[in-house]
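HUMAN: Would you supply a protein with fold tokens?

ASSISTANT:
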Amino acid sequence: MRTARATMPTMTQPPATYADLEAMPEHVRAELIDGELVLQAYPSVDHQSVLVHLATHLQNHFGGKARDDGDRPGGWVVVSVPELWLGSPDPKTRVLAPDLAAWRRERWPRVRETHGLTVVPDWVCEILSPSTQRYDRLRKATVYADAGVAWYWLLDPVQRFVEAYERRDGVWVRVAAFDTDEQATLPPFGGAPVDVGAWWADLDPDE
């Protein structure tokens, strides 16, 4: 399966700033954590396929307003690869771009003067790969918890399962895990159970 992404943590001298992040080429995904510029190659085709399936599913079921028939609980704003400004006191000292993030509609910022978002999302999801798994599980997870993200998903397209974590007293606690064969109601999203396996329906089952 072609899910790997290269990750090349680097630190400029003097420490990197938001201007260094903006100067990166478009084909490089760059994030900034306390002066360190973290670079990743553009996601693989399989990674993007899973992302599109998941984003479409969440948007269709939970995005926008609820439907009267109950098939669409609604209540969320779902965004693919948003630029999150999570630093404090300077928001631009911690700039992350998760695969997906979502805000409850009442918390979604009504006025956005730039492409960066300083309103902390309620939920963040990272799609794992062998080269980024450690970074997503450790360093990014710490930044998300420090910023106040309430829910964190880790989706593994190689092993084909998803883990849901809830932040409790500043620590991530795994509250659910589901694999490809399960119909599941995934926190924090309510409503009818969903087909988790549909998220990687286009991947070769033999790879």
Observations:
- The CA atoms of residues 145 and 169 lie 9 Å apart.
- Confidence is low (pLDDT under 50) at residues 1-9.
